[in-house]
Design goal:
Elements lengths: L1 H8 L1 E7 L3 H10 L5 E5 L4 E7 H7 L9 E8 L1 H8 L3 H17 L5 E5 L6 H10 L13 H11 L3 E9 L2 E8 L13 E5 L3 E10 L1 E2 L6 E2 L4 E4 L1 E4 L3 E4 L3 E17 L1 E19 L2 E4 L11 E12 L3 E21 L2 H20 L4 E12 L2 E13 L1 E5 L20
Parallel strand pairs: 5-7
Antiparallel strand pairs: 1-3, 1-4, 2-3, 6-7, 8-12, 8-22, 9-11, 9-15, 10-12, 13-14, 15-21, 16-17, 16-19, 18-19, 20-21
Length: about 400
């Protein structure tokens, strides 16, 4: 902000030579003349930058210092105005250009989406376009409050959205909805089933009737705890079954990789193509559209143009750099490839059994065939296999009390 004020007020870069440069700085302080960017050239010479108003105030006082003051560079609006004030055609062109920039800045020429992870940016931009907000939309006509409500109704996975307008750029900031894991109210009967096949080693039951016991062999999807509870006095009743059950399980995983790998070796040859985007219009700043390299990496750098104050113009320069490389075939060591695959398999296994799981035993088998290394993992693990599901309608059958049954019997 201060640099903008200095630019409009006008500033001058001075080179001051005198026997005691410190006296020059004291003189500025005594007369309330601010300066910045002090550089000491030698023992007798310093360079400073100050506003033109301060320079005019200080100039008569410098004679007492026996100092030589030389303006090096002048900049700012006053300097520019003195140069163009009598060039009416140039001045008219400048006014028209500034007016065109101001008018173009009222329209949206660039839309960027931030904060999305699972929702594609194209889906968000398409929904905005259907609601009338896209490239070329008149910025002041965008009602952000109504737009936010309509977007939340259109995209159920959005928890929050806002559109910030900065000149010709619209920044769409979103927060995606975090879906809670499936929960069942206390009044909904549930059952506990097995997520993996194995042998049960430990059971902690908080509610429900067990259908298996420690030492039982179970298969994936089998019910372990039911929410149906029977009693002689009350007949059948249904509860929200819940339990934590650990079982000894087994996993078999495989992973392969070729021994011959293709690597990129950059040759150092590059070619650059610049493209200027003015709103939606594209202007190629190159003559030959072909690329001389057969294999290359493409690197894209974008540069925006701004007015003082950070206002974004609808002009963007895109620089595309094509870096040539040669594909070089290298051969991996068989032992190195096998060790790498073993690490990847262990990582995948730990992800499968979860943070509370434990690997009891892991056996690897390496197979090399037709230039491909394959590693097979057979592991014995201990993991939590209990998961909750809602009981089906056919399971919610009430058993009637037997006639003449003693309610007070134990």
């Amino acid at each position: 902000m201060q640099s903008m004020v200095n630019f409009f007020a006008g500033q001058v870069r001075l080179e001051v030579t005198c026997p005691y440069p410190e006296r020059f700085m004291n003189l500025c302080a005594q007369n309330d003349v601010g300066f910045w960017d002090l550089v000491r050239v030698d023992a007798l010479t310093v360079q400073v930058t100050m506003r033109m108003k301060g320079y005019r105030k200080l100039r008569p006082l410098l004679q007492n210092l026996n100092a030589e003051v030389k303006p090096i560079k002048r900049a700012g609006v006053p300097v520019f105005w003195r140069r163009v004030r009598r060039r009416y055609v140039l001045l008219a062109g400048l006014i028209l250009t500034l007016a065109a920039i101001w008018i173009m800045n009222l329209y949206i020429w660039d839309i960027r989406v931030e904060g999305n992870e699972t929702i594609p940016a194209a889906v968000i931009l398409s929904s905005l376009d259907e609601l009338g907000v896209g490239i070329g939309t008149f910025g002041p006509s965008v009602e952000t409050e109504a737009l936010r409500n309509q977007m939340l109704l259109r995209l159920e996975d959005l928890a929050w959205i806002t559109v910030n307008l900065n000149g010709s750029r619209a920044t769409v900031i979103v927060r995606e909805r975090v879906h809670a894991p499936q929960m069942f109210p206390e009044g909904i009967p549930t059952a506990v089933y097995a997520t993996q096949s194995g042998v049960i080693e430990q059971m902690t039951i908080w509610a429900g009737t067990p259908l298996v016991e420690v030492g039982s062999t179970v298969v994936m999807g089998q019910d372990l705890i039911t929410g149906r509870m029977e009693s002689a006095a009350r007949g059948s009743r249904f509860v929200r079954a819940d339990a934590e059950i650990f079982a000894r399980t087994w996993h078999e995983l495989s992973m392969s990789t070729p021994l011959e790998q293709t690597e990129k070796v950059h040759t150092g040859e590059t070619s650059t193509k610049n493209i200027l985007f003015f709103g939606q219009r594209r202007i190629n700043l190159f003559l030959n559209s072909g690329i001389s390299h057969i294999t290359y990496d493409k690197i894209v750098n974008e540069s925006d143009f701004h007015l003082p104050g950070g206002i974004v113009l609808p002009i963007r320069l895109e620089r595309r750099i094509y870096a040539a490389y040669e594909p070089v075939v290298t051969r991996l060591d068989e032992t190195t490839a096998a060790l790498f695959l073993q690490e990847q398999l262990m990582t995948r296994l730990e992800t499968l059994i979860g943070s509370h799981g434990q690997v009891l035993r892991a056996d690897f088998e390496v197979e090399i065939k037709a230039g491909i290394v394959t590693v097979h993992l057979r592991a014995e693990t201990r993991e939590q296999i209990a998961a909750i599901r809602r009981m089906r309608e056919d399971e919610l059958v009430v058993t009637p009390l037997l006639e003449g049954e003693d309610f007070n019997s134990p």
